[in-house]
Amino acid sequence: MCAFAVFMLLSVCAAPAIAQGPPPHLPAGVLADAPEPARVNYLKQHVVVEGPVTGGLTFSFDDDFYSGRLFLLGESHGSAAPQVLDIELLTHLNARLGLTDYLGEVDPVQAHRLNRYLDTGDETLLDRVFDRWNADSQWANTAYEDKLRAIRRLNAGLPAGQRIRIHGIDAIQDWPLVAEELQARGAPLDAAAFASARGTSRARLAADALARAPDAAADAYLLQALERQAVESDRETIIFNNYAALVRSDVLGDRPAYGLWGATHVMQGPLRGRLPFGGRVRASDLPSADGVRSLVVYGLDSAFQFPVPLPTGVARVRFTDGNVDGPVVKLAGSASLREASAPHRLTVFRIDADRSPYREGQQLIALRSSMDPGLLPSADVPTSGYAQYVGVYRGSDWAAPREGAGPTLSP
Fold this sequence. Notes:
By secondary structure, this protein is of the alpha/beta class. The protein is built from 16 helices and 14 strands. It has helices at about 15-20, 30, 35-45, 65, 80-95, 110-120, 125-135, 140-155, 175-185, 190-195, 200-210, 220-230, 235-250, 265, 275-280, 335-340; strands at about 45-50, 60, 70-75, 100-105, 165-170, 255-260, 290-300, 305-310, 315-320, 330, 345-350, 365-370, 390-395, 410. A 9-stranded mixed sheet has the order 2-1-11-13-7-3-6-4-5. Strands 8-9-14 form a 3-stranded mixed sheet. β1 and β2 form a beta hairpin. α5 (about 80-95) runs parallel beside α8 (about 140-155), α11 packs antiparallel against α12 and α12 (about 220-230) packs antiparallel against α13 (about 235-250). The protein is globular, with a radius of gyration of 21 Å.
């Protein structure tokens, strides 16, 4: 996670710096920025989503957007507005395209529990999945919980064939939950060896145990995901391979799918010389390769939840210096984003239209941070090669920590 959190301030890698005091500010020369009239005018003419940060968004995407096969929303974890956009965009795609497949930033076992929650409304299933995130993740927030409840309410009003299902394509996040699942299925897991194992060795033990379960064929996808993780430790590779398996096995096939991820996962160009998930799909031979639609949203004037590890456990900081116009993080071109948007609103722009100024240069992608090396896009790939849509939310509150996620501290 550390390698993919540099510009979002969402990884616990940087948390000790906040625990010890506010992070340093970037130099004034880096923070200096002014809106460019031509870019501001372009953005204002290409608004595709607009509305209050608290909800009630309107959508006016072009036809090309709806021809997509893989819709990816990228965000900075810890703020409330992206969760609002997530549920409203999911609802919109369900109504417009009949989209039912949600690719969460969750692993296969977490997805299995969340789907059971969607079916039953059993809140203990939610609690068990959130137990893992309570330890160190921004996902441990009430906005995420409320979004899952909203998906259940959405499903309640839909025919069975149009209801949302969650697919877990991430690397395993919660190994104790995997052990619980294997034991529930009667898999002969050596609990002591499993608890002490790490990395690919732990995945190997889980895969071998599941293969000997009485009904191993009941979840071939989980078995194959464990088999893949037993030989591969790179997270982006695991995510792509799990997605590809769902497509090639016709679990997804050519149906459109959508998901919310950390922003770097959804980008379609190389970062630090390596392709993230969105870029791997675009470069693949999958039927969705030409149908990736990436939306990246940034925060201005907003607050973020930041988990801080302390000797007594994790605490949560309501952090207001994580916005992309400084003083800790600076996105190239953020002044034009501000000028083209309004306070307390969420606005998304198409940035790859004809004569777009974002077909050249790297504004709205290149980013500096005082706490990390920053986001390093490839010099030969323009902004429109990373995403088709960029958005900004202004004045969003933090995604407040859920009960059990630790105490709240002042930064």
